[in-house]
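2.7 Reproducibility. Because tokenized structures are sensitive to small changes in the input, we list the exact sequence used for Peptidase C1A papain C-terminal domain-containing protein, including any N-terminal residues retained from the expression construct. No trimming or masking was applied before prediction.
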Amino acid sequence: MITSVWKAQQHIRQYGAVVSRFDVHSDFESFFADRRNAQAVYRPGASAYFQYYHAITLVGYDSEQQYWLAKNSYGSTWGDTGLFKVAYGVCAILAADKGEAYGIVWTPSSVPDAR
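Resulting structure tokens (single pass, no recycling of outputs):
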């Protein structure tokens, strides 16, 4: 289980991805329905409320601007070719009390021939 920003960043650098819980808020879908927001960083608005649980894959990050680059399961026509930016510390991503973020490690069953 991964519960810190640093550990998630380290895992992404070493292995490529972290799967995390994502609490969808009432303004999430409308935020990305506006195509001008495709590359904007999502932060739930002050009046947004929790709607449902979801899972996302964290595939990158920007420490200076404090956001995760996440892959959604809504397909490549959603967001920025299926990706979106979400601020650190929101939507229960890596929430220690929720315990729902895990690193992905893929090991091939056989090594390809190097010829």
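The chain has two helices and six strands.
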